[in-house]
Amino acid sequence: MTTQEDHVPHPVVVAVDGPSGSGKSSVCRRVAARLGLAYLDTGAMYRAATWWCLENGIDLDATDTVTAAVERMPLEVGVDPEGPTFTVGGRDVGEAIRTAAISSVVSRVATNLDARADLGERQRRIIAVECSAEGWSGGRGVVVEGRDITTVIAPDADVRLLLTASEEARLARRARELHGDADAASVEATRSHVVGRDAQDSTVVEFMTAADGVVTVDSSDLDLEQTVEAVLTVVARVTSA
Ligand SMILES: Nc1ncnc2c1ncn2[C@@H]1O[C@H](COP(=O)(O)OP(=O)(O)O)[C@@H](O)[C@H]1O
Ligand SMILES: Nc1ccn([C@H]2C[C@H](O)[C@@H](COP(=O)(O)OP(=O)(O)O)O2)c(=O)n1
Predict the structure, then answer these.
(1) Is the separation of the CB atoms in 20 and 170 below 8 Å?
(2) Of 37, 76, 152, 215, which is least packed with CB atoms within 10 Å of its CB?
(3) What percent of the chain has pLDDT over 70?
(4) Where does the Cytidylate kinase domain lie (predicted)?
């Protein structure tokens, strides 16, 4: 694999937002690996927080109890793009946080503003560490993806990107991922996971349109590798400007 790390000034922070199924996780992991940067999946932190609340028998409608639980969650995040890890109290939750049971309720934690503040602080700390010699990346920097990274968490990031794709493309991708194909029944079965969750999440953060200074990459008609190349092109252009 070609590495392009020597062409980008360091430390560098690449912030990427976008709706469900736009390709953030798969594209950002590859971009981070190609650039020798750390990779932070903030959606997985919301998933871990949701897992932790359920594990502790907490009613997700009890907003203050959820906030208190999230604040004491012993989460550790591994930022190697070749194998990101999420550990809560020493337990590897990498698989547990991807279940349909978590996907269907994660928005209830993600729309809790105090829980967002706590997770946001943790995200800022990870970004700061990755821009220092103590970080996994040795100070090279980090690719961070989520819903509010370009606007709230790292509005001063060197590169700010909105990764979009048509609703049709996003539904087809998720249907293939969850059901193995993208026929009409699979797409319908996927709709609430994609469109419904985005509608819920959009009540607290804006990730469907690019904020000022944020570059949009539309992946509707691109395959994964083409999307990675498109993002790398933006990173190279913005950091050399
Ligand atoms: N440009 C693309 N073309 C085709 N499939 C893609 C593309 N980007 C991502 N995918 C696939 O779509 C699915 C959803 O992508 P994912 O990275 O999980 O999106 P997000 O993190 O934005 O929700 C995955 O199965 C992924 O491999
Ligand atoms: N910075 C972020 C990241 C994710 N979220 C929310 C949005 C989603 O409902 C959950 C999980 O995010 P994730 O990126 O894993 O979602 P997908 O399944 O990839 O669509 O967290 C958020 O509100 N803010």
Answers:
(1) yes
(2) 76
(3) 98
(4) 14-235
Q: How confident is the model over 161-220, as pLDDT tens digits?
A: 999 999 999 999 999 988 888 888 888 888 888 998 999 999 999 999 999 999 999 999
Report whether 19 belongs to an annotated binding site: yes
Mutate to test the pocket of ligand 1, among 29, 41, 173 (most ligand atoms within 8 A of CB): 173
**C-alpha closest to that of 19 among 207, 145, 173:** 207
pLDDT of residue 6: 54
Q: Which residue has the tokens 């991708």?
A: 173
Q: How far is the CA of 229 from the centre of ligand 1 (A)?
A: 14
Structure tokens at 236: 């190279």
Does 4 fall in a domain? Answer: no
In a domain, 209, yes or no: yes
Structural domain that includes position 122: 9-240
How far is Cα 216 from Cα 20, in angstroms, rounded to an integer? 15
User: CA end-to-end span of the chain, whole Å?
Assistant: 26
Within a domain: residue 117? yes
Query: Which atom of ligand 2 has the smallest separation from the CA of 200?
Result: 9
Residue 62 in any domain: the answer is yes
Q: Residue 52: what pLDDT?
A: 98
Q: How many domains does the chain have?
A: 1
pLDDT tens digits for 80-105? 999 999 999 999 999 999 999 999 99
Interatomic CA distance for residues 218 and 213, integer angstroms: 16
pLDDT of 5 above 90: no
**Greatest pairwise CA separation for the chain in angstroms:** 51
Q: Is 107 annotated as a binding residue?
A: no
